Amino acid sequence: MTEPLPDGYVVHLPPAYRQVRLPHQFGDPVSVAANVTLSRHPQTERTCTVCGAVKVTVHGSNGIAWREWRKCASDEQTAVEVVCGAKVPG
Ligand SMILES: [Zn+2]
User: What's the CA-to-centroid distance between 26 and ligand 1, angstroms?
Assistant: First the structure.
């Protein structure tokens, strides 16, 4: 059994990490073929070397292209820009 904390005891621990917003730093564009499993058109992907977010140019079947975003460890692509950031100590 651990001892109960005394009355009025307050813990002042800083968070171990904080999120810092940064500009994306994209690597070289990579052409990706259509993916039937994920219902994706052919697309061009640029991965951020800071946060791993992927900026995607989707090449639609009728010559129209549009922007989508994907988080590094996710299969889901949306039109909502992924905010760049990194966790830093303190
Ligand atoms: Zn980023």
Answer: 7
For residue 69, which of 85, 87, 47 has the smallest C-alpha distance? 47
Alpha helices of the chain — where are they, by DSSP H?
none
CA of 52 to the centre of ligand 1 (A): 6
Q: What is the pLDDT along the chain (90 residues), one digit of tens a residue?
A: 677 777 777 777 777 888 888 899 999 999 999 999 999 999 999 999 988 999 999 999 889 999 999 998 888 999 999 989 877 787
CA of 47 to the centre of ligand 1 (A): 8
Q: Tell me the CA–centroid distance for residue 8 and ligand 1, in Å.
A: 43
What is this structure's pTM?
Answer: 0.72
